[in-house]
Amino acid sequence: MSARHFLSLMDCTPQELNSLVRRGIELKDLRERGVLFEPLKNRVLGMIFEKASTRTRLSFEAGMIQLGGQAIFLSPRDTQLGRGEPISDSAIVMSRMLDAVMIRTFAHSTLTDFAANSSVPVINGLSDDLHPCQLMADMQTFHEHRGSIAGKTVAWIGDGNNMCNTYIEAAIQFDFQLKVACPEGYEPDAELMARAGDRVQVMRDPRAAAAGAHLISTDVWASMGQEDEAAARLATFRPYQVDRALLDCAADNVLFMHCLPAHRGEEISHDLLDDPRSVAWDQAENRLHVQKALLEFLVEPAYHHA
């Protein structure tokens, strides 16, 4: 199985990731100028969703169409996946009919099992562990507004969840310092922390994390699948709300990002997305552009070398 997969930011070199960011910016420019660019004509992306989605589905589906290809939406309710067919069997069959597969799932092992048995590229559209496509959009957004993120300081405020884990990978691959402010017991993955070494610090005080930060990012306090913990989390995370005053503690040119959907009045103040320092709408749009760069990168060579 020689297909290139994108399950984590560690699946690419730092050079490849940076060129994907630059390519995302180029593809965005082409679209804004109305230039038709269809390198993936007749290519088909299968999209498997075990979790609900707005941005991931729209960006991959629209992206494939804009690149001249097609995308097929598959939910476990409508396929044998939800009825006990082994992931490995599904992967073998589906990859014989498709040119790439995007999976949004709970267990990260679903992705690794599928990829191990797939003859075409597999893309992580979000798992409980990681969300690499979102981080690529974040990196493109920072690059557009502020240039290279290398050597800069990023603050993650809130839950040490899949987004936080992926920010740790990004700190390694894009060469920035990461300060994570989270409540006790909600730290990011210990193994990833160890791999990042002194690039990443965990602290309890959001103001300390925000001090001098060039980028502040957060996410909802209860992710999909944690709804039963929501009330308890609300109390625990209350001191971790990002508001304008917290942005005022950061660098003068700080940017604020949120991968959305946002719960206003919880992890962010009601007015934060209206603050001029927030680039959350650009960030959401850039999912489309950087994923088109990723699809082009993964699917085109596979096609040419077939």
TrEMBL record:
Residues 151-297 form the Aspartate/ornithine carbamoyltransferase Asp/Orn-binding domain. One of its GO terms (cellular component) is cytoplasm. Its main location: cytoplasm. Carbamoyl phosphate binds at S53, T54, R55, T56, Q80, R104, H131, P132, C133, Q134, C259, L260, R287. GO terms for biological process: citrulline biosynthetic process; L-arginine biosynthetic process via ornithine. Keywords: Cytoplasm, Transferase. Residues 4-144 form the Aspartate/ornithine carbamoyltransferase carbamoyl-P binding domain. The keyword Cytoplasm applies. L-ornithine binds at N162, D219, S223, M224. NCBIfam families: orni_carb_tr, PRK00779.1. It catalyses: carbamoyl phosphate + L-ornithine = L-citrulline + phosphate + H(+). Pfam families: OTCace, OTCace_N. HAMAP family: OTCase. One of its GO terms (molecular function) is amino acid binding. It comes from the Bacteria. This is Ornithine carbamoyltransferase. InterPro entries: Asp/Orn_carbamoyltranf_P-bd, Asp/Orn_carbamoylTrfase, Asp/Orn_carbamoylTrfase_sf, Asp_carbamoyltransf_Asp/Orn-bd, Orn/put_carbamltrans, OTCase_ArgI. It is found in: Cytoplasm.
